[in-house]
Design brief:
With about 550 residues, the protein is mainly β. Strands 4-5-6-7-38 form a 5-stranded antiparallel β-sheet, with no helix packed on it. Strands 13, 14, 15, 16 and 17 form a 5-stranded antiparallel β-sheet that branches. The protein starts with a helix and ends in a 32-residue tail after the last strand.
Length: about 550
């Protein structure tokens, strides 16, 4: 019997002696506890963190399997992360995430391509969660988040590489959830769920620090749903805009992924009729072993090629599907459109494993310098119940990435990017890995960031298999060809502009990240893909 198995058996004994802790599935973070919010569609409401598992103390750091860097190295759980690269200076990276119980957004920035990071918070004391960010070609870094009373969608701007951010501009208010943000050629757009339906607003951008105001809030026809994204494509008035979402928002599936398109961007026209993109067996709250506390949704996301290259005007939409409803064999799927979203291609499977384990929380991004499209996702393929943190198969995840250079028809061999297995239950995080993970691609590189508690490098201050830190490991995107940059001058709506006043962020400390040489390990031989047997569908936990 090996040492890990002995430890696992001992851990099991301790677990049986440890009283279970019940949690509510819908609570908003406060300084010490949560409050119930009776709105079943609102995934922004964060359950309080669970008590750490004392059995985790039995595990010690493993050798890193890949050359990862701990970006956050901060106590507590950091999850639902975004990483952005400055298109005017690729040495400048900014990472953001939820920072539970601080009413702030965690922020770290790097000026040396990710070798070292300066850490702190933004929207300090006034933010709930759900921060997402986008960097435009002027050098504007826009970040959207939900305020600490969960009643406003706010946007802040940095013009100095993520060091300071402006005062917030409120884009929407009321019953709000899960905003997304995207930039175009002279525009910035935000969408979010408002009282159960998707809405959006856009604003012109004419230079560094010069943008706005937002146009009127646009109701999107028949857009009852949530948990999606927004993208800006080519075209006048800042570019055409597409939003995607899934409906219904509750249950474990099936569900349908929809899209709506605004063909004239910031022009007078609005969003067109709802378009059906795909069905999926992944519902709005679909429980899988690796995300058994929070659940996952299909997490549809998209990018719109505006590079002027061979795939210009192509839309790429990624989402999660399940081979048979409730069998936990979730896959990452891509569909594309070449006619402004009117019709969509057949599905293409992005993950290349031969297992029936789970892949989840995909994110798609496009390298505007080459037209290469990349996808990152959490992946349980290597957790067979023996090679993991415990004897339970399919509940430990690693992080993987891949890319396509032929318009989404084929995908490069999936590459593991994380340094070891993570386990969400061990993190005690109310949202497990979270509801999304945001990435960026630029100049032939995919910049990744994910929640990780493997602690393979020993830098997590909470220890191994405890709270999540944010880890990074970029993926080189080979085979892409440079594409022409559009020469059209951004067309802005003729409205007055304003320049937000920068305000300093919380005190941050520059911290050098230790480097190491990863130990190569053999690639596991995939097992044949068996025909899954559906499991009985559990009754979803009702929202308080």
């Amino acid at each position: 019997m090996n040492t890990r198995l002995r430890l696992t058996m001992l851990a099991t004994v301790f677990a049986l002696l440890t009283p279970t802790t019940s949690i509510l599935h819908a609570q908003m973070p406060a300084a010490t506890d949560g409050i119930d919010v009776p709105d079943g569609t609102r995934k922004c409401i964060k359950p309080k963190e669970r008590a750490p598992k004392p059995t985790d103390l039995l595990f010690t750091p493993l050798t890193c399997l890949e050359p990862v860097v701990n970006v956050s190295a901060t106590t507590g759980n950091q999850a639902e992360s975004f990483v952005n690269v400055n298109p005017t200076n690729t040495n400048n990276l900014v990472a953001t995430s939820n920072d539970p119980f601080t009413n702030s957004i965690f922020r770290a920035y790097s000026t040396d391509a990710g070798a070292t990071w300066t850490r702190g918070t933004i929207a300090t004391g006034v933010a709930c969660c759900d921060g997402q960010a986008a960097w435009d070609t002027f050098g504007n870094l826009f970040l959207v988040y939900i305020n600490n009373s969960v009643s406003q969608i706010n946007v802040i701007l940095s013009t100095d590489g993520g060091v300071t951010f402006s005062a917030p501009v409120t884009a929407g208010s009321g019953s709000v959830d899960q905003p997304s943000i995207a930039v175009g050629n002279g525009s910035v757009w935000v969408d979010w769920n408002s009282s159960g339906s998707m809405v959006a607003r856009g604003a012109p951008v004419t230079g560094l620090g010069t943008w706005g105001p937002f146009n009127a809030q646009q109701a999107i026809p028949s857009a009852t749903g949530s948990f999606g994204g927004i993208a800006v494509g080519p075209g006048p008035n800042g570019g055409k805009v597409i939003v995607t979402y899934q409906s219904p928002t509750g249950g474990q599936g099936p569900a349908t992924i929809f899209a709506n398109v605004d063909a004239d961007g910031l022009g007078a026209g609005g969003f067109g009729a709802r378009i059906t993109v795909s069905s999926t067996n992944v519902g709005g709250f679909d429980f899988i072993p690796a995300q058994s506390g929070r659940s996952v949704d299909a997490e549809a996301g998209l990018v719109w090629d505006a590079t002027g290259g061979p795939f210009n005007n192509r839309i790429y939409l990624v989402y999660t599907d399940e081979t048979v409803n409730e069998n936990n064999d979730t896959d990452i799927i891509m569909r594309t459109s070449t006619d402004d979203g009117a019709t969509w291609s057949a599905p293409v499977r992005v993950n290349d494993d031969a297992t029936t384990n789970s892949q989840f929380l995909p994110y798609v991004t496009l390298d505007s310098t080459t037209g290469t499209v990349a996808v990152g996702f959490h992946d349980c393929r290597n957790d067979d119940g023996v090679n993991g943190t415990n004897n339970i198969p399919n509940d430990d995840a690693e992080y993987f990435g891949t890319f396509t250079t032929d318009g989404g028809a084929t995908w490069a061999s999936n590459r593991r990017l994380s340094g070891g297995f993570s386990n969400a239950a061990a993190a005690g995080n109310g949202v497990d890995y979270g509801d999304y993970v945001g990435l960026s691609a630029f100049a032939g590189k995919l910049y990744t960031l994910w929640a990780d508690n493997a602690n393979c490098d020993g830098t997590n201050p909470n220890g191994t298999l405890h709270q999540f830190d944010l880890y990074a490991n970029p993926l080189t995107l080979t085979g892409g060809s440079p594409t022409p940059t559009p020469t059209a001058t951004p067309t802005a709506t003729a409205t007055a502009t304003f320049t937000p006043t920068p305000t300093p962020t919380a005190t941050a400390t520059a911290t050098a990240t230790a480097t190491f040489t990863p130990t190569p390990t053999p690639t596991p031989t995939p097992t044949p893909r068996a025909t899954p047997t559906p499991r009985p569908r559990p009754t979803p936990v009702p929202r308080p």
